[in-house]
Amino acid sequence: MIEGKARMKPIGIGAIEIQRVGDVDCQRVDPHQLYSNLTPELVAQQRDALGPSLMAPDNGDLLLSYHSYVVRTRHHTIVVDTCLGNHKERPTAPAWHRLDTPYLARLEQAGVRPQDVDVVLCTHLHADHVGWNTRLDNGRWVPTFPNARYLIAQSEFAHCGALHSARPAAPVNRGSFEDSVLPVVQAGIADLVPASHRIELEPEGGVWLEPAPGHTPGNVNIVVRGGGRDAILCGDVIHHPIQLALPWLELPADFDRDQASATRRALLERCADTDIVLLTGHFPDPTSGRLRRAGDAFRFAFDAR
User: What is the CATH architecture assignment of 2-302?
Assistant: First the structure.
């Protein structure tokens, strides 16, 4: 299932460059908690195919990454998915609780200062995709990227906003709606956009959103096109390469499991045996690659440029 493991290098899609910036590069996750219909027998069957960089050899834990993508076009510097964030109160997710990672330093090593970012995109509003939307400053959550427009799918914000307005016993998305989404809205730098919103459109390509519902009601993919090539930044449509070998695996975290499955299958069929570069929200470094058919399932060929 795995080919060519190495570190992800910046990818050129025509004149557009895509670069990975890590927040938490490797986190163990119990496979049975991530996928509700995954059995120990299936985990054992996949262990050799996945290898130690994707599945812990001692107990079969799945290894996940939490990272952003920086997309540089001729007109914009865009950050896609802002990971977990520092100092966030996440008591129901101990591995995410009160983190202190060098994410901003890594961003600067990639040549991007927070003030340089023009657009922030989040594929959806779960806590592990919006955390660095804000940072803690004198006890207040303030936008990390002060000069950016934060683009949020209207349907996603409406769903989370309705949950928040109902005053649930547990905070929405582990508290991230309050500390990582509402502050940028209140700062006046958020735009609620359709799920098919175009950031750039030029004769040779561009950058746009496309609906990918199921994991959340307003989940989107980010499509980058240039030089006759496509890249798709698909967030949590696919979580881990084991889901390619077993595409019917279900996530308890999916809002609508049937719709999520249909969205995932459509993406797999679209990308299989093509030159489309697929960049997920949680595949460990080198992260980027291409899909290949493997009978009724798929395998992922990591890029090793």
Answer: 4-Layer Sandwich (3.60)
